[in-house]
Amino acid sequence: MHTRPCGDTGLLVELDSLDDVLALHADLAADPPSGTVDLVPAARTVLVRVRAATDLAAVAADVLARTPEPASTRGGDTVEIAVTYDGEDLDEVARHTGLAPEEVVEAHTGQTWTVAFAGFTPGFGYLVGADDRLHVPRRESSRTRVPAGAVGLAGEFSGVYPRESPGGWQLIGRTDHVLWDLDRDPPAVLRPGTRVRFSRA
Amino acid sequence: MITVLAAGPQTTVQDVRGRPGRADLGVGVSGAADRRALALANRLVGNDASAAGLEITLGGFAAAFPTERSSTPIGGVVALTGAPAPLTIGGRAADPYRPVAVPAGAELRLGTPPTGLRSYLAVRGGIAVEPVLGSRATDVVAGLGPAVVTEGDELPVGPAPARPVPAVDLAPPPRADGTLRVVLGPRADWFAGPGLLLHRPWTVTDDLNRVGFRLDGPELARAEGFAGVELPSEGVIRGSVQVPPSGRPTVFLADHPVTGGYPVIAVVLDADTDAAGQLRPGEQVRFRL
């Protein structure tokens, strides 16, 4: 774990793995360093955003002194998402992974996923799985319109589009599960640390 | 209610604070691109610091104030800050950077500002649209908050605050010298000569919106060992200077994404991001430490 400067109101903490990111984010969220305004977990980093005039050296010292417990030992909500596996890229994913389409579905439903971080659009969670069989590249050209509820894969992640948007992920299915609803508190179903099981609709 | 007669190139409802603290939901901060200007406009009309106003890009805005003001007894006090667009009220010229009374039924019109990009119009009582996740700011990318303002909109005005319109009746516009202070990093080491960012002037291109603006200038090439390396997405903040494979940097403003997939060579100091929000296409800008 080490830190990189990020202006006068931020500190970027770089970690070795996504597991370390999840662990540090949970630790920081439970007891934020003095002056913290926002925590932005990502693939290998946690960005700590602070109020203007916060002593960033003190924030860095606080972060670096922490020894967060591994994320796998923490509790967390589990959400079940029912998916109709008829995505346009299912055959393409099968080709990339060397699996039959049916085996892609089994791999997707057969593991517990964890939300590593959110981004791209409100309510979009980057899910990491327990095995790497479904690691596939993004599509070579992205779609200008991906419908809400589309379930996709890209890199080491799976995700569900909370609303219609452009997107470059390989689409394997769709769900009716509403992932972003401003009338709920919090509005996002998928938050860092949330566990997800996919099932066949 | 005030009735929008013309919205200009882009007008949105904004507040100073936006939506901090929700990055874990994928929600960015948003809020005024020039927070300092909106804060001043609110102060000039006696509004709370949390009040929403209008962010008007390159002028062209016009609105009619109500003739019946039963619900907002003294509704018509406004202040214009930020880009000093020529302001007329009821056909008569009025000064920016001071509180101005608007008679019942009068029309307010803005011309095109000679300098700056975004004007801020505060109305005493604030624009009282329904807050979303604690803010009335429009995040144009995330689709949060009120819709972009269009002709024919009826914008609700809140009740006048207890505080009177302050006696200070003129506040000078801040001086802008086309220089933005930065801290190098977090990924300055990915570039062959990060000093190149500091030593040459850059030109603001017309690829510009509330997300940020792209700059034209020398190519910021990657350092040896980083050529073609992909960066896993990481958190970015307002003022981040992100460099895509083209080598031409983008400076992020209020509606930037929560995370970005290209390395950030430097970050503009928080206080200078307000001035960054006033740069217009064709202007030159320099970075310094």
Q: Can you characterise this structure?
A:
The complex is a heterodimer of chains A (201) and B (289). Chain A is an alpha+beta fold. Chain A has helices at 18-30, 56-64, 90-97, 101-109; strands at 2-5, 10-14, 36-41, 45-50, 78-83, 113-118, 125-128, 143-146, 150-154, 157-160, 165-167, 170-174, 195-200. Chain B is 6% helix and 29% strand. The mean pLDDT of chain B is 92. The chains are: A alpha+beta (201), B mainly beta (289). Chain A binds chain B through residues 4-10, 12, 25, 29, 37-47, 49, 52, 117-125, 163, 182, 186-188, 191-192, and chain B through 20-27, 29, 132-133, 142-144, 182-187, 232-237, 239-240, 257-259, 264, 267-271.
CATH fold-level assignment of the largest domain in chain A: Cyclophilin
Order of helices and strands of chain B: EEHEEEEEEEEEEHEEEEEEEHE
Low-pLDDT runs of 5+ residues of chain A are none
With strands numbered from the N-terminus, the spatial order across the biggest sheet of chain A is 5-13-6-7-10-9-12
Mean pLDDT of chain B: 92
Please report the total strand number of chain B as a whole number.
20
CATH class of the largest domain in chain A: Mainly Beta
**Derived structural class of chain A:** alpha+beta
Q: Per the principal axes of the C-alpha atoms, what is the gross shape of chain B?
A: elongated
Count of separate structural domains of chain B: 2
Q: What is the rounded distance between the termini of chain A?
A: 41 Å
